[in-house]
Write a structure and sequence with these properties.
By secondary structure, the protein is of the alpha+beta class. The chain has helices spanning about 85-100, 105-110, and strands spanning about 10, 15-20, 25-35, 35-40, 50-55, 65-75, 75-85. It comes from Desulfovibrio gilichinskyi.
């Protein structure tokens, strides 16, 4: 997708996250992250349309839990669109994105517009 059409800033980050779905859990490296989704390296066992949980482990006590839907799965990576997260996870995600962004204030300003078409 053209970067200009994206409604959320993507940050280039490389860390390990856990993806889980119906009895399958894998650790995978990220390529980029936004408030709306994540792009990871390719992983087998996850197909477009699968609902999964993304766990971003910040520390032993702080884990961001997000329910998502796989929207792309090919040799270039696995893209997960975020569907549901609780308020605490959202707060941690927002701070993670802001900390790694070149313009932290822009992240908050993005929250004033919808991430999806009506």
């Amino acid at each position: 997708m053209d970067q200009n059409k994206r409604r959320r800033t993507r940050i280039q980050v490389e860390f390990t996250v856990k993806l889980s779905k119906s009895g399958l859990s894998v650790m995978v490296e990220t390529q980029n992250l936004s408030l709306k989704g994540i792009l990871c390296n390719s992983v087998e066992g996850f197909a477009v349309g699968n609902i999964c949980e993304v766990s971003i482990i910040l520390s032993e006590d702080v884990v961001i839990h997000i329910e998502g839907k796989v929207v792309r799965s090919d040799e270039s990576g696995l893209a997960v669109d975020f569907i549901v997260m609780n308020e605490v996870s959202f707060t941690h995600l927002r701070k993670l994105v802001q900390y790694n962004s070149t313009d932290a204030d822009a992240i908050d300003s993005e929250l004033t517009s919808p991430a999806f078409d009506a």
